[in-house]
Structure formats: C-alpha cells, structure tokens
C-alpha cells in the first residue's frame, strides 16, 4: 500500500509564506531636489569617464533622453549647458547630493526662463535664488502640514559654496541669457533649399529570349580549349 503524505496545516503554509517574503526596502524621504533628475550612480558613472568627452556626452544624453545631439542645435546647447554644470560641480568638489541638487536647480531655472521670452533675466535670477535658499537652511515642517518636495528647505550648501555658485551662473549663464532665449523661445526661420542630384540609372538586363541555357554554355566553355588545341596541332603538322 502507498503511504499517505502528511497533511500540511494552514499554520505551516502561513509560516512558509512568511519565511519566503523578503523585507521591503525602506525608501528614504525626499530631501529637496536631491536625486530628482540624476541618481548617485549616474553621477558617479559620469565622473568616472575622466576626460573622455564623447563618452561623457553619450552618458548624459542617455540620462536626459536626448536624441540627435550632433544634428539638432537646440539639443546640443541644452546638453552642453547641463554638461558644464556637472563639470563645475566636479571641479569645485561638490558632493554627489550637492551635484544632483544643483543639476536639478539649474534645469528648473532653464525651463522657467529660457522657453518663455517674456521672462526677464532679473525674474529668472530671483527664481534661482529662491531655489538655492531652500537648499541652504533646514526647515521643520509641522506634522500636520503637508509640504511638497520643493517647499521643504534643507541644509545642503554652505554660504561660501553659494557665493561660488552665484558667481559661476552670473558669468556663464546670465551673461548669455538673451542668447539662450533667442535659440529656444523665439521661432527660428526655416530655409528650404532644392538641389538637382544626378542619379545613375542601371543598365537594362538583356532579354530572356537571348539567354543561353546553363548546360549549353558550360559545354561551349569545355569545347573551346579542345578546338584551340586541334588548330595548333594542325598548323604545326
């Protein structure tokens, strides 16, 4: 007789299911604009490219979802803008958190002022200062008060770093503010040019009526050397 397998109780099943479940990772609360656009792994990978500009641009365009970097002038300008912001962070020894936050701050400043021709440089600079202030001092929101990610103030940048950052964007970004707006906020003229292009036309294939069967063609090729040999032998005699 076959032995009966022992019955499994509901308690045992519950214990097995509990043992198989892995603890869910605890997500850290968002702090300002840290990791809003770039993660620590992405920034670290970008910096590890060293001085390989092509590899850096290839990674950055992938992070930004930008295609046709070399073909589209606007894409080139936008990616280069973000590239030099990251290189500024690297040269000035900003941490990964500071780099991520500064990258997102400048991205928001760009979107706020460059795509709208009615935004003046002074208004854009005020928007930039407001974002930076939120990342220079810690706030203690009440438990009952729900604040968005941008409304919470955090202590991320020091005052000396704030001065260096302000000098950088004043000389590099706001000095060319109108030029950026000209490229992105104003419609660009479209020039359509037509050129005559010479295209080679392939020759027509011979008619099928003039075709030779493959077997007959092979027979002619085999017989040709024999005929030549007979002619040479006859002339020698």
Layout of SSEs?
Layout: H1 10-20, H2 40-47, H3 53-64, H4 73-91, H5 96-113, H6 121-133, H7 159-172, H8 177-184, H9 214-236
Helix pairs in contact: 2-3, 3-4, 4-5, 5-6
Can you tag this structure with a few keywords?
237 residues, mainly alpha, 9 helices, elongated
Summarize the structure.
This protein has 237 residues and is mainly alpha-helical. It has helices at residues 10-20, 40-47, 53-64, 73-91, 96-113, 121-133, 159-172, 177-184, 214-236. The radius of gyration is 36 Å and the shape is elongated.
Low-confidence stretches: none
Beta content = under 5%
Quickly count the helices: 9
Largest sheet: none
Quick one: how many beta strands?
Answer: 0
**Using only CA atoms, what is the Rg?**
36 Å
Helix content: 40-55%
In words, what does this structure look like?
The structure is a single chain. The chain has 237 residues and is mainly alpha-helical. It is built from nine helices and no strands. α4 runs antiparallel to α5 and α5 packs antiparallel against α6. It is elongated.
